[in-house]
Amino acid sequence: MKTTCITTLFWPLSMLLLSDESQSSKIEVKCNFTEKNYSLIPTDINKNVTILDLSYNQITLNIIDTRVLQTYFLLTELYLTENNVTMLYNNGFGNLSNLEILNICRNSIHVIEQGAFTGLNKLKQLYLCQNKIFQLNPDVFVPLKNLILLNLQGNFISYFDVPQLFHLELIILYGNPWNCSCSLLNLQNWLNTSNVTLENENITTCAYPDILKFYCIKTVPYNAECYLKFPPPINEDLYNHLQSISNSTFNSSLNNLKNSEHKLGKSWAFLVGVVITVLMTSFLIFAAIKCPVWYNFLLSYNHHRLEEHEAETYEDGFTGNSSSLSQVPDKNSEETIVIFEKLHSFVVDDDGFIEDKYIDTHELHEEN
Hints:
Number of helices: 8
GO molecular function: signaling receptor activity
Subcellular location: Membrane
Helix content: 40-55%
Structural class: alpha/beta
Strand content: 5-15%
Low-confidence stretches: 1-25, 323-329, 342-350
Mean pLDDT: 76
Keywords: Glycoprotein, Leucine-rich repeat, Membrane, Repeat, Signal, Transmembrane, Transmembrane helix
Strand order of the largest sheet: 1-2-3-5-7-8-9-11
Shape: elongated
Transmembrane segments: 268-289
Order of helices and strands: HEEHEEEEEEEEHEEHHHHH
Signal peptide: 1-24
């Protein structure tokens, strides 16, 4: 019971202390060091500073300055107007995750590295006016997801490729020598199709070419060739729409591919079965036709070379047959001689010579 009572008594006091701490954390701490002729960012500034103005000094934002600047991580606004900044280095503001306004106007910035604004996830307003910027890489602005105002007034920019999914509400571009050739068509399309407002639109004009001089960059006429070379940029709605279309198209094509593979497998198996059936039927028909011919051929093919004793036996038998043939009447003598010649032509003589069947049989008969 005592513990419960103590807790109950101290609960309102603890809530009061927490509310005081939260209010103190939200208190703005402003530090103004303008026109102090500083060449480096001071290190003795209150670490709880939220708004820091270092305008009209000689600060260059070198490596030493960026290291000191990282210690003021509660900053929400930083003003470096009219200093000697010539270059913005990678991760120069990396630890300033609470920064919402960054003003670096009226310097001599001519190089902005790609990762210069890394870490500025809450930045809403960026002022780069009246510098010496000739060219901007659109990837520089990729980390600035919440940027709503961009001031590029008074530089030497003639071309600007708008980053995709750029959510600006206000942009200031006048005072630049804009080259209104086909390469600027994407910027014009973005200005006309997005919700961004172009400040001082009437004085944001072309400097080149001469035929388009003094045309507003938002309304400059382009020929059809420019539209073919440079298609309009993709805004967020169009991007999401195309993404959904591509996903649905991919899924449908994948399903069609699976179905076609399934159908192809069935048709291929059917085709193979038909081919095998045709081949087997053809083979059976061929075998049925040719088997009797082959059988007769093999059955009649019994010839072999006579051995020596077989030849003598055959000759003796033939001699006996010839004597019996001599007893046949004369009217069959000629036929007997012909039969004898046919049979005797296959008998080998003892002298090893083959009898010539073209010798006159009448002469042989008279000699015998």
